[in-house]
């Protein structure tokens, strides 16, 4: 009898694309894989009329129910956007593989103003991300913001309807869903520094020392090992270390972007005040042989020495 690898995913358009991408690759490699769709708190929050419970903790709202399924053995493998994963996983879980990253950049989606600087004064940008709002204000203090939620097609429809004049989205999502014709401008990381881990997937399994079935868990870890992409692992580990050292969470206006450059890695990180009036930014390089966590922690310490925590405190 063939062993089956059960993959858990959220039901959003983008999550399904990503989970299927992994599923088909596993099938191509000769494995039996199945998909299980799991509804998370984060998905329910995007429904109209959702009332958040008073004790709701924003961290990990897209992963809680998926990790429960992992822990209970209903699934063997969870496929997430790495940027939605908290910087610290509970000890029962492991980031078993990080596949090659797609385009990590943020993009400008705006008809008919093809670039950020051409949008007329007071233009309304549809984003709820504190990082994107702060970074946009640093470039264009006149901008206004409106809440646009939902999956990518919903957001594009709301843009078409005129609910906003422009959107800023992750390139990876639009590229994966073949909506790249909406992209007018891909921001350089210095203009709009992407969220740590943006554009990368995370393959999460039970940790080695928390198996449901030792032989099956080892089989799954072995099956997914070929997805692992060492450059992406290094870069996203360094980026997430910056975020972790500054207090974690996707609600903080922190960008970090690391790239391999011949023989070394370069990490750039940026913390912006919520009103865009102040910013600290730094970059550092390190040899390929060094520890990505040290690189991220070093940058975070240097950002703190330049006042990053004051900017972050202003944002809560
Ligand atoms: N916060 C939602 C989210 N999580 C991951 C992506 C995009 C895909 C990725 O970064 O891998 C998005 C949408 C967006 O930011 O536009």
UniProtKB/TrEMBL annotation:
Quaternary structure (record): Monomer.
Keywords: Porphyrin biosynthesis, Transferase
Protein name listed in UniProt: Porphobilinogen deaminase
GO cellular component, one term: cytoplasm
Organism whose genome encodes this protein: Granulicella arctica
HAMAP family in alphabetical order: Porphobil_deam
All copies of domain Porphobilinogen deaminase C-terminal, residue ranges: 234-304
Coiled coil: none
Family (UniProt): Belongs to the HMBS family.
Domain Porphobilinogen deaminase N-terminal: 5-212
Involved pathway(s): Porphyrin-containing compound metabolism; protoporphyrin-IX biosynthesis; coproporphyrinogen-III from 5-aminolevulinate: step 2/4
Alphabetical GO biological process terms: protoporphyrinogen IX biosynthetic process
Cofactor binding comment, as recorded: Binds 1 dipyrromethane group covalently.
Pfam families documented for this protein: Porphobil_deam, Porphobil_deamC
Protein's UniProt keywords contain Cell division: no
Requisite cofactors: dipyrromethane
NCBIfam families: hemC
Function: Tetrapolymerization of the monopyrrole PBG into the hydroxymethylbilane pre-uroporphyrinogen in several discrete steps.
Leftover remarks: The porphobilinogen subunits are added to the dipyrromethane group.
PANTHER family found in the cross-reference section: PORPHOBILINOGEN DEAMINASE
E.C. number(s) listed in UniProt: 2.5.1.61
Signal peptide: none
Keyword ATP-binding among UniProt keywords: no
InterPro entries tied to this protein: HemC, Porphobilin_deaminase_N, Porphobilinogen_deaminase_C, Porphobilinogen_deaminase_C_sf
Residues recorded as bearing S-(dipyrrolylmethanemethyl)cysteine in the entry: 250
